[in-house]
Amino acid sequence: MLQINVTKTLSSFTFAFNQEITCQGITAILGVSGSGKSTLINLLNGLLQPDNGIIKLNDTTLVDTTSNQFVPAQRRHIGTVFQDPLLFPHYTVRKNLHYGLHKAMVTRFDEIIQVLNISHLLHRYPAMLSGGEKQRVAIGRALLTNPQLLLMDEPLSALDMPRKKELIHYIQHLVNEINIPIIYVTHNINEVKKLANNVAIIDQGKLYDYGETDAILQSDYLQHWL
Ligand SMILES: Nc1ncnc2c1ncn2[C@@H]1O[C@H](COP(=O)(O)OP(=O)(O)OP(=O)(O)O)[C@@H](O)[C@H]1O
């Protein structure tokens, strides 16, 4: 369970989110540009500190402003995959994957690279990969840190249509094969339909609605998107 009850003001933008999220399968965070999706991701992974509130992941308190608790990003056991895969250009894929490799994941290395179909890329450098391949390596690297939760911030947006379809297939595969909850940020309803079990809609920095995908897709708010 991911419990989030936070506020954060960034210049003239105020973000306020209060919801308990079931940490199972994929939860999509859906909203138009500037609604606050990345702000939420950065509050969860520890890149941003809320002005007020708490964030709890299962039994662990990550943030509690009343008791000045703030677990730094590197100790949160949360992996993040960004829009642009951030790989070390001077490291091979294998070395990129070993960066941050958790000892508990050493025995799962082969399984993860097989699920993501990157075994044949281990000796290459990032410059020798397509955008979709780079993103699969970035997902593999995030998983190999042994996170309790994986955050994906618009992971398909830099890809062309065929690569988008391909990566959607790998993300679906990942959820079936490796039991890890994913928070998936997007402004694309088709991605939500294909991937998400639950959806949270964010509008102007506020949570507008949260629930199972089928129910949320019926909401009046989304009718002009469809
Ligand atoms: N460090 C900052 N300082 C001031 N304003 C900020 C800062 N970071 C974000 N904002 C503002 O907060 C608002 C929400 O930004 P955010 O990046 O969370 O939106 P988003 O929904 O992820 O947008 P997009 O889909 O375009 O990435 C925007 O108006 C943005 O300009």
TrEMBL record:
<keyword id="KW-0067">ATP-binding</keyword>
<dbReference type="InterPro" id="IPR017871">
    <property type="entry name" value="ABC_transporter-like_CS"/>
</dbReference>
<dbReference type="GO" id="GO:0015098">
    <property type="term" value="F:molybdate ion transmembrane transporter activity"/>
</dbReference>
<keyword id="KW-0547">Nucleotide-binding</keyword>
<dbReference type="InterPro" id="IPR027417">
    <property type="entry name" value="P-loop_NTPase"/>
</dbReference>
<dbReference type="GO" id="GO:0016887">
    <property type="term" value="F:ATP hydrolysis activity"/>
</dbReference>
<protein>
    <submittedName>
        <fullName>Molybdate transport system ATP-binding protein</fullName>
    </submittedName>
</protein>
<feature type="domain" description="ABC transporter">
    <location>
        <begin position="1"/>
        <end position="226"/>
    </location>
</feature>
<dbReference type="Pfam" id="PF00005">
    <property type="entry name" value="ABC_tran"/>
</dbReference>
<dbReference type="InterPro" id="IPR003439">
    <property type="entry name" value="ABC_transporter-like_ATP-bd"/>
</dbReference>
<dbReference type="GO" id="GO:0016020">
    <property type="term" value="C:membrane"/>
</dbReference>
<dbReference type="GO" id="GO:0005524">
    <property type="term" value="F:ATP binding"/>
</dbReference>
<dbReference type="GO" id="GO:0140359">
    <property type="term" value="F:ABC-type transporter activity"/>
</dbReference>
<dbReference type="InterPro" id="IPR011868">
    <property type="entry name" value="ModC_ABC_ATP-bd"/>
</dbReference>
<dbReference type="InterPro" id="IPR003593">
    <property type="entry name" value="AAA+_ATPase"/>
</dbReference>
<dbReference type="InterPro" id="IPR050334">
    <property type="entry name" value="Molybdenum_import_ModC"/>
</dbReference>
